[in-house]
Amino acid sequence: MASLICGSFAFDTIMNFEGRFSEQILPDQLHILNVSFLAPSLRRDFGGCAGNIAYSLKLLGGEPVPMATLGRDGGVYLDRLKGLKISTEWIQEVSTDYTAQAMIMTDKDNNQITAFHPGAMNQAHLNVIPKAGVAKVAIIAPDGRQAMIDHAQQLHDLAIPFVFDPGQGLPMFNGEELKHFVDLATWVTVNDYEAKMLEDKVGEPLSNLSKRLKGLMVTLGHEGCDVWVQGEVSRVAPVSAQQVLDPTGCGDAWRGALLFGLERDWSLTRCASLGNHLGALKIAHQGPQNYALTDTIRALIA
User: Fold this and answer.
1) Which of 158, 143, 239, 229 is nearest to 188 (CA)?
2) Which of 4, 35, 82, 267 has the highest CB neighbour count under 10 A?
3) Neighbouring residues of 282: CB distance < 8 A, sequence distance ≥ 6
4) What secondary structure letter does DSSP report for 13?
5) 155-190 in b/e burial notation, b at 16+ Cβ within 10 A?
6) CATH number of 3-21+39-301
7) Residue 15 contacts by C-beta under 8 Å, 6 or more apart in sequence?
8) Where are the domains of the chain?
9) For the segment 77-120, what is each residue's pLDDT rounded down to a tens digit?
């Protein structure tokens, strides 16, 4: 059965800075910050959390159903989705805005600076989850603020289990709002930085939050993943990448693997292990939607 993916579609403009941000920013001059980074390489990719997760899930053999908004320049993205045989049924086009745009610069240590224009994403709340049974599981990924609030409540009311993945949208919400998301959700997934922010905002440790969920997953990059279940944590081993080229979309690749496993009632540790493999595969390729499965991953899902 399908996985409903509520989140953003975006065009990513990705640049590489051949130095280190830390060597160009003077800590004692932050009050008059004025810096420029020479980026010799530039490319445009299809991106956005919903698009990246859908790509990952489809690649694994799952059934992604993205729910998102595109702007007046989004026709090329729709064509791509159709070419990948990904459903476009719940994607709205907003003629008054551009599709969301992310401007991402990565330095030689894989640190990133991102400027994001939400565009049509701000109208994502116009999409309404239609009925129970539209999907076996769902995910609330970063999207317009009101869309994340509305879709979480709609999924809960329709008794569709879902993953809350606040990601870069986490700062939009205060502690009480985040507690409410946790109470509505079935699972939560964050990276290690977001995990600390979540704890600080809600005033509770992950061990406590996990007791209100079926599971809470914290991705740790090259250190693997922590899976919290009812206050107990398990470390899922990392997977070494053949090379480290571009971290953009690694977390979304991981989340596609998570949904693939949840569709099949896998354990959370097995889901996380597949996610670690897919994240290691993605980081060895430029762009968030430009990788293909290896024989190793095919064996994991056989």
Assistant:
1) 229
2) 4
3) 56, 249, 250, 253, 288, 291
4) E
5) bbebebebbbbbbebbeebeeebbbbbbebbbbbbb
6) 3.40.1190.20
7) 37, 39, 41, 42, 103, 104, 105, 106
8) 3-21+39-301
9) 999 999 999 999 999 999 999 999 989 898 988 788 888 899 99
